[in-house]
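Re: [help] complex structure
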Amino acid sequence: MSAVLKQAAPVADHRVTSEGTDHRALRFLTAGSVDDGKSTLIGRLLFDSQAILADQLNALEQRAAGAPVDLSLLTDGLEAEREQGITIDVAFRYFATRSRKFIIADAPGHEQYTRNMVTAAAGSDAAVVLVDITKLDIGKGGQHPPVQLLPQTRRHALLAHLLRVPSIVFAVNKLDAVADPQAAFEATRAALLAFVAEAGITGLAGILPVSALRGDNVTLPLNAPWYDGPSLLQLLERLPTTQERTEGALLQPVQYVARDAGDDAKGAGHLPRVFWGRIAHGSVRAGDAVQVFPSGERAVVAEVRRAGSTVAAALAGESAGIVLDRQLDISRGDWIASPGGLRPVQRFTATLAWLDTEPATVGRKYWVRHGNRWVQARLSAIEHQIDIHSLAPVDAHALTVNQIGQVVIELQQALPLEPYADNRVGGALIVVDPATHRTSGALLVRSAG
Amino acid sequence: MNARAEFATSLDTLLPELDHRHLDWLEEEAIFILREVAASFERPALLFSGGKDSCVVLRLAEKAFKTRIAGNHFKGQLPFPLLHVDTGHNFPEVIAFRDQRVAEMGERLVVGHLEDSMKRGTVRLAHPLESRNGHQTVTLLEAIEEHRFDCLIGGARRDEEKARAKERIFSHRDSFGQWQPKEQRPELWTLFNTRHRPGEHFRSFPISNWTELDVWLYLARENIPLPHLYYAHQRQVMRRKGLLVPLTDVTPPEAGETVETATVRFRTVGDMTCTCPVESDAANATEIVAETLTVTVSERGATRMDDRTSEASMERRKKEGYF
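Output below.
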């Protein structure tokens, strides 16, 4: 029996310059509540992959004062947190195996939970949801009712799904603390599968038994006759990193406009301008016809550059410098795209995750950033709030911190939006309070127009 | 390209099991961040001390804004000046290296001198040989004010220290230059929120996601010049509390200590009064990569006297406006 439900598909490598495999770091978030063993699991991954060094272990040993070293202490960071014994913000941890570099976005599991998880999920390739098996009522024998999952497990998985984290992994933890690990795991797995089907979660990448405390099935596979799947680390090593599509129409947000470095053969005033930006989707090569947003002007690509050199082509995910065949007035915030490829809209519906202690107010004007452009936007309606334990719609007139809703936004000027599900760059915006400059919300475009 | 191919080959020969192609991805991300700084701020500056992390950031900036002619040579100009805070207790060979690199590249260097802050009376030392490291903050903030810098690009990494693990890529500082860990702006995707009021500024960390190993791999692969004290050399040192303290004018032996000669290299290069070398035979970047793979003491733990004061010492200094 294998507990891996969706084998990670081999990643189509889009980079012309490298051979075969995916060399990006895999960024994953870890979701769990207090006492689920999340910090211990992260400590275990760092410890087993030798990312913990002797002096750091020394500090832990001194604090343990003779008791077994608590690996969870490796991940707490700030003085205020040590005083209160909690974590208050997303922390980033690093480790590497021979085949991949990993970035852990560690989202703490208490009151600011949604805000932290939204922050950790934006840009993550995978989510590892911790399930504490000792908190479940497993029952005995075969005729017991199905296992009831804890609310936090449902919440964590649904949030990851709502935020479109591509791969979701359930790590069923504390297997060392149950009498019959096989039966407990099987029953939990059945409950998770039923929940995933009912909720329509699309990114399920695996359900794995682990003991973070003992290190079972974290890096090395579990030595048990009833489990022949991969260890957590083996699974993470082959999950795909998020890659934007390289075929189809070009979309490049202009990030930075540079004058060509010193190539003044044509005399002063004729230095070509280079439009730098990370390609959102598609590709660009010399000779391609392009159209500029918002001017609508058209041009032909004369040259494509990457980090100081001229190249034949650049692909989605890469920063490209585009030189055009004619002088156009283009600045940061504009978009370079395939002709006719953009459909700018002034009104759209979106999922809004609210991160600010000051509530989202209908009718208020905010700043939003889309691509590299800042525009004013009005929150024109809150259609409903989303219950993060069920994704069911709930009536609401305001969104407070840690709440998520479906909203209608009106823009002061039209933007070339795309559904977030199709493209992260075209479909993501941040909301900034014009009075405080705080980042107040995250918008994921559902439908434009 | 040839120099890079050669080094990649020597890395592959010496360390065949080591895959360093993720550096392309890290480089891509860092260049993206550097261009974001240049586009979003009116008066940014790049912190350049001659230390290895700032040498990496400088190379990334050359790649982001210049055109490569051949090997280590680029043409063009960076869109911002370089900034260094000199405590007056820096290793002379590092200052010489700094000035040589700046001259070679034809860039503009702004130096803030801690001794000027002492003359102005804004820095008061408790005693003449007190470590000046913590006092750099005053001079740094004075330089920011004088030159009206609105963003400083630094080479800090999140793997260096616990307080840094929660640092943003674009980190907001209030008008006192203070870091408020609880008031940090959530950083979503790469939609950085760089909006700020006059007098406030940002710190930007393009190599946040790099580890010490990544830095050495990149230094080796890109053939980036470094001050010689990063590589194995003979030096007079004293053994003190598990550290090797270099013998300098400002770090004399304490009572009962003996001075010995050891083969050492520096893993970080900061103020002379608080930077210690480690024993090592590694004579080039590739050998340091090999050594880093087997090392068991973290970079700051082995080399920084100031971080040993308390587990929270970095956090305190960051709150006060440290790098």
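The radius of gyration of chain B is 19 Å.
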